[in-house]
Amino acid sequence: MQAEKQSSSLARQILKSATESSLIPFLAILTAVIVGGIIISIVGGNPFQAYRGLIEGSLGSQKALSETAVWATPYIFAGLAVALAFKGGLFNIGAEGQLALGAVFSSLIGYALPGWLGFDLPTIIHLPLAIIVGMIAGGIWAGVVGALKAYTGGHEVINTIMMNYIALNTTSFLLNGIMKDKSPTNVIARTPMIADSARIPTIFEGLRVHWGFLLALLVAFFIWWLLTKTTLGFEIRTVGLNPDAAKYAGINVKRTITLTMVFSGMLAGLAGAIEVTGLNFRHELGFSIGYGFDAIAIALLGKSHPLGVVLAAILFAAMRNGATRMQFITQLPVDLISMLQAFILLFVAADAIVRYIYRVKSKGERVVLTRGWGG
Amino acid sequence: MDWKRFSFIALVIIVLFGAVVMVGQSQQRPILIITSMLATTIAVATPLTLGALSGVFCERSGVVNIGIEGMMLSAAFFGWLAAIYMFHVFGFPIGISITVGALFAVITGGLMGLLLAVLSITFNVDQIIGGTVINILAVGLTGFLNRQLFFGKGSVFGGQVPNSPGVLPTIHIPIREIFAPLCSDSIICIENIRAINRVFDQKPIAMGAVLLVFIAHFILFKTRWGLRTRSVGEHPKAADTVGINVFKMRYANVIIGGCLAGLAGAYFTIESVPSFEPLLTNGRGFISLAAMIFGNWTPIGAWAAALVFGASQALQINMQLFRESIPPQWAFLQQSYVVGLAPYILTMLILTGIIGKTTPPAADGVPYEK
Amino acid sequence: MAQTNIVLEAKDITKQFPGVLANDGVNFNLRKGEIHALLGENGAGKSTLMNVLYGLHLPDKGEIYVNEKPVLIHSSNDSIALGIGMVHQHFMLIPVFTVAENIMLGDETVRRGMLDQNAVAEKVNQLSKQYGMDVDPLALVGQLPVGVQQRVEIVKTLYRDAQILILDEPTAVLTPQEADDLFRIMRDLTKRGVSIIFITHKLKEVLAIADRITVMRAGRTVGTVSPKDVNPEKLATMMVGREVNLVILKKQANPKEATLVVKDLHVEDDRRYPAVRGVSFEVHAGEVLGIAGVQGNGQTQLAEALTGLRPTQSGQVTLAGKDITGKTPRVITETGLANIPEDRQRHGLVLSYTIADNMVLCNYYRPPFANGVVMQPDQIDANARQLIKDFDVRTPSPFVPASKLSGGNQQKVIVARELSRPIKLLIASQPTRGLDVGSIEYIHSRIIQKRDEGAAVLLVSSELDEIMVLSDRIAVMYRGQIVDIVPAANVSKEYLGLLMAGVKLEDAVKSAPKQEKEIKVERVF
Amino acid sequence: MKKLYLVLAALIIASMVLSACGTAPSAEDCASPDVFCVGLVTDVGKINDKSFNQSAWEGVQKAQTDGVADVVQYIETTDAKDYAKNIAQFGDAGYDAIVTVGFALGEATVAAAATYPDIHFIGVDQFQAETTEGVSGLNFPEDNAGFLVGALAAMMSESHKIGAVCGTDVVPPVWRFGEGYKAGAAYADAQNGTTTEVFVVYHSDVGFDKTFTDPEWGAQTAKSMMDQGADAIFGCGGITGNGAITAAAQAGAYAIGVDTDQYLTLPEAAPRMLSSAMKLITPGVAKLIAAVKDGTIESGNVFGDAGYAPFHDLEASVPAEVKTAMETINTGLLDGSIKTDVPPVKP
């Protein structure tokens, strides 16, 4: 490689590797859409109308685009959470619970802090505080699992699932008890509205897309930078790829595992905090259904690369958002979206199937994302 | 089998039962409380036991199965669907319809097992991700088909959701008939025998699950099949060198595991309640997985662990029944959120190795490449 | 003794792996009742040939004849049916099964649907009596010593009525005395009509036991000879393909102060059994201390404890005057340790990382490779280019993943990384295991160079020859203890063998040290 | 790669052929004043939940079969943040009436009423603290319905032990059913001088999304109650309750349904179906839609009917004096002479 040619060939290399690495996900999506279409036809629907509805509903207007961004925001954070854990050799199935905890504590700061202090806070303090507290709550929740993995060997998959249940019960307990909105008009398990000073403003007047979306993109960039450019990122990746070599290299493996899980949980917590401060302005029970699993699919589809995660999150957001329009036009069940997502995930995970269908040759070795129970 | 784990499990169950007896004894005779809780425990443990057995077969052969939940859910759906078609569309009698339904559930589970096998054994997909794919696929597929087939425009049954022909009947074990005459005229005695009988009067799948625990134990630890299964889960290369086909063994065991998860699915829609609801398995597949680990990858251990989960649910229900008798200092037990946490925390404790160490099969989760 | 009827013949076997032509038209035959040694360097294709004969690999080309009939061997089932048994280098035993279960696996005795362990145990007892191999059929394999596990493997093949036995590097895990015992068993077997293929890279063993010797090199058979017709030099030439008169020019060591001081160290293994039991020694600056011993006598655990990878139970370790007992690898490395780990792919490298990243694996966080939190890719690249040049790593670019390199080049990446730092102590565990001669030579010379620069070197190796070539003093470990520490210059291999078996003679073979400014040590394979 | 292009080309051709066969979307123009369109937005949940979403949708469909509505359409909500968007889907299409189901949509409904002043909104189970122009909240006295079946169960029980298996008490209507049930049993006891033990169990230990959809738990809980001697089980809480009802019927106890006359929706429990605590959402919704079309609709709170279902198969086994007593209680509740004393919300 000559030095003078390096910059141009580097650009070409990046482009080439980008096309190569996005080929399989693209073909997986295509295949999933075809398989989904066939199933729709079999059960008596019209796949073309369904897909038209999906596209119209997600991209067809300013409002549709705005709503897609609204959907994408928590997806990006949660997808990054799972992807970061993957990079560190951990499988975080518990984004759901961490997200709920983040939302609970973010809303607590949002509505209760001014009352505790006895005076109103300016947005510049209150909003970041609400977000950070939510983030930390998610981080601690996941950190427990990380520490158990690092210091006792308890497998994170089971532990995050268990922590999901515990989070669910804890949230129910809090939202039905001390954190319940006591106003006479409220009857359901939800917190009071957060103060205006803890709300993220919208970007455009009249559209719901808020600055949280931009923050999500920034955080994605930050995670990319963290993973590829910093020593901490190097440590996380090394532990993820080969913990034995990491230990030998002097990396504190246990601390890194715990930290990775804490960061992962913080990202998931951030998803919850941003939903509260940017969109719902309160937390209520049953608000997050299935973000955890969607996040896994997003991380896998995005090949755990932050840019890939952003793109996958936007795709999933578009599907979820477009579902309204699709239903309206065709009255096909929304579960169609879950099914499509499952097929996409199936074909991404088993890329050999896609490679076989389209005769795409395999390059490079298999990336190990998770390990067995490990005792 | 380690006595430590079993005495721990026994202790937990005794504590759970004891708490209810202490609370409820002012309202009800202890024997009636205990037998009722036992009956609930066994019934609740049924899908967990079968799910855990599914995990045992898969993981003993070296394939991690976190798709039990999805396997159960899809089996519950397709079993129910088959029963409805048999009854409403083809006009078969109830008995045949539900039997065919149960069979279909098992077959569906087996097919999902086959999918996991294809993904993880043939395509070398990360096994945990393969299981996750199955879980997500099951939710999407059953939700979509349930709505599209049974409700709204273009649905097969024209919007009128047909009801399942029914559920499997309870099998009566004639303990009462045999022992009641010994009571002479004591009404309490007869009542007690009646209560004990209630523990044994279970439905076919619940009984089958207990039977299968011992059959699975026998197969895994006493037969040629079991020896070979365990060998491919421990050291596939060693098995290969003595002429055992690792791929075939893994395929077969994962499919068997799928069928067991399918039977667990049948429990929901064919045995317990004659209707299907989206997400009706409610995470019981994951609890099964926890039970399997809790039970150290052995059928009997997994069953014991499933009973712990069953007992804790029995406790939750009964604590609410005897709500009025709960002393004020125990009031927190009324909060089902609090009691409901016990099994999850217990599972996490088990995983830390504080209560006896769990050892997975050495090659569990490791794809075998020749 | 040697008969002419051929029980096994391989003709023109070719086997291609991605990137490697492992077997290239190999011809080989085995006569009834003979011990036929298959000799060759690591990577010469011996194991591939055996795996083809045993049905684990399908050959791309070539025929196999058993008892002069052409056969197709598609799986180990076929080979077992043909009476071929194989004892693998890494034992194919399941630790959590009993001996009887391991032996019957794949050929189970079943009575009324249940495994009949007692019947198997009876047959095992009978077999072990017949061949003088004592094994308890009901013991758990995981709790047996290595030598006994090997016997279980042999009984396993006999249980299947194997008439042709393939032994893959069987002596690697044995003391010289245990090896003699194995040779006795092999002789017994051939007397009963069993034919044995004996795979090894150790010349002396071959000459001691084999009836015929086939030498392989780079995927081809170089030739078949009788031990009577050859000497070690000739065999070595056949193995390596060039004149082997390898001499390591090694100056007399010039030991200075004690760099590493180990006092009464106790270490446990993974199963929490004591593995190192009260070991004390010193390594001085400017000398090589070799740790010899049969595998599994605590050397691995000792090296891991000294490098901070394994906790110590008690005792004290001092490096350059600093107490490093129980310190983390990072602290120990910063104190001045370089470590060439035993398992290079597991510990030494991150295989999917580039060479450049692997070359900063231990100091990625320090200037100039990072400033505070951000890494400096330019510096990392420059470092890699320099080291690739300095250490002769054969790679098209520093951005190639380490997994794409050959074993020798992978090891050079590790050596480059470790030796490029200013160090006080080098711990090298099995530094040349599985490498070709060229790489071995290179790595040996680098280790000596480091010694001459004034570093203390602790060499852990199960290759007695390597220990004798490189070391200035030799410590022999047996069952977690150091039996004796002897000067390398005047110790016989036989005495080391006794020490490795735990036998210490009182000054029996110690002779006056030679006083030479420059000693020549001939390399013997 | 050539193969890839072939596959793609084939797909495109296939898609063109298929799309030519596709049917055109509904051509009716809801924006035109001649076409009366009704849209329904569910709470997070399925349209076929055999519970309030489904009942409300059946009300909308009834409006269509009655000839009131020309076009009816629904949208299932999958996430709370979509409430406003889903309502807007109908609003932007120029629908005339939009039914939103469940308390959680209350705020989004009120907000939408401001955005779409020409559209009338019907909020099922949405209590209007203050009247918003264009929004009618459809509410039901669930405690009355619970009271009726509670009294019935207490009068019919031979063991004087009765049970109720409910969804989560976090949802006020469910809680009111449960409390009404207790109050009704107490009332019957006072009238007849009996003492009836009442078990009421809520499924609050799981997430909000699962509390109404766990038939297995419902069945097990009902069995536990029957083990303790209960011989009448009231299943209140969607699918979870259905599990309890089915289990009760199979064990030969009296089964009591909820919301609609579940004799009709749960045939497998029909032979032992004593009655149902009815909350007549379907006719209520249909009636309000008709009122929207007539222009007689009033904003603010509208109260629907609650009552108890006929005894059907058990008609013969219910004594005449019980039937009389039930009529008396029903009249008393309607004219206010009997009060359940159940507050609207769990304190």
Blueprint (SSEs and pairs):
The complex is a heterotetramer of chains A (375), B (370), C (525) and D (347).
Chain A: H1 3-42, H2 47-59, H3 62-87, H4 95-117, H5 123-152, H6 156-176, H7 211-229, H8 231-241, H9 243-248, H10 253-280, H11 291-301, H12 306-330, H13 335-349, H14 351-358
Helix pairs in contact in A: 1-13, 1-14, 2-3, 2-12, 3-7, 3-10, 3-11, 3-12, 4-5, 4-6, 4-10, 4-11, 5-6, 5-10, 7-8, 7-12, 8-10, 11-12, 11-13, 13-14
Chain B: H1 3-24, H2 30-60, H3 68-89, H4 94-122, H5 127-150, H6 175-179, H7 187-200, H8 204-222, H9 224-234, H10 236-241, H11 246-272, H12 284-294, H13 299-321, H14 336-339, H15 342-352
Helix pairs in contact in B: 1-2, 1-13, 2-7, 2-8, 2-11, 2-12, 2-13, 3-4, 3-5, 3-11, 3-12, 4-5, 4-11, 8-9, 9-11, 12-13, 12-15
Chain C: E1 6-17, E2 20-31, E3 35-40, H1 46-53, E4 61-66, E5 69-71, H2 76-81, E6 84-87, H3 99-104, E7 110-111, E8 114-115, H4 117-131, H5 146-159, E9 164-168, H6 176-191, E10 195-200, H7 203-209, E11 212-217, E12 220-225, H8 232-240, E13 247-251, E14 258-268, E15 274-284, E16 288-292, H9 299-306, E17 312-319, E18 322-323, H10 329-336, E19 337-340, H11 344-348, H12 355-358, E20 370-371, E21 374-375, H13 377-390, H14 407-419, E22 425-429, H15 437-452, E23 456-460, H16 464-470, E24 473-478, E25 481-487, H17 493-500, E26 518-522
Parallel strand pairs in C: 3-10, 3-11, 6-9, 9-10, 16-23, 16-24, 19-22, 22-23
Antiparallel strand pairs in C: 1-2, 1-4, 4-5, 7-8, 11-12, 13-26, 14-15, 14-17, 17-18, 20-21, 24-25
Helix pairs in contact in C: 14-15
List the main descriptive attributes of the protein structure presented here:
heterotetramer, A: 375 residues, mainly alpha, 74% helix, 0% strand, globular, disordered N terminus, D: 347 residues, alpha/beta, Rossmann fold, 2 domains, 6-stranded parallel beta sheet, 6-stranded mixed beta sheet, 12 strands
Task: Describe the protein.
The complex is a heterotetramer of chains A (375), B (370), C (525) and D (347). With 375 residues, chain A is mainly alpha-helical. Chain A contains 14 helices and no strands. The longest helix of chain A is centred in the N-terminal third of the chain and has 40 residues, at 3-42. Mean pLDDT of chain A is 87; it is low at 1-5. Chain C has 525 residues and is an alpha/beta fold. Chain D contains 11 helices and 12 strands. Chain D is elongated and about 60 Å long. The interface between A and B is large, with 55 and 60 residues.
Task: Determine the N-to-C terminus distance of chain C.
Answer: 28 Å
Measured as a percent range, the helix fraction of chain C is 25-40%
The helix content of chain D, as a percent range, equals 40-55%
Helix and strand composition category of chain D: alpha/beta
CATH class of the largest domain in chain C: Alpha Beta
Largest sheet of chain C: 6 strands, mixed
Which chain pair has the greatest contact?
A: A-B, 55 and 60 residues
Amino-to-carboxy terminus distance of chain D: 68 Å
Residues in β-strands, percent of chain D: 15-25%
Q: Describe the main β-sheet of chain D briefly.
A: 6 strands, parallel
Helical run tally of chain D: 11
Give the uncertain stretches of chain C in residue-range form: 508-525
Largest sheet strand order of chain C: 6-9-10-3-11-12
Trace the largest sheet of chain D across and list its strands: 2-1-3-4-5-11
User: Got a strand count of chain C?
Assistant: 26
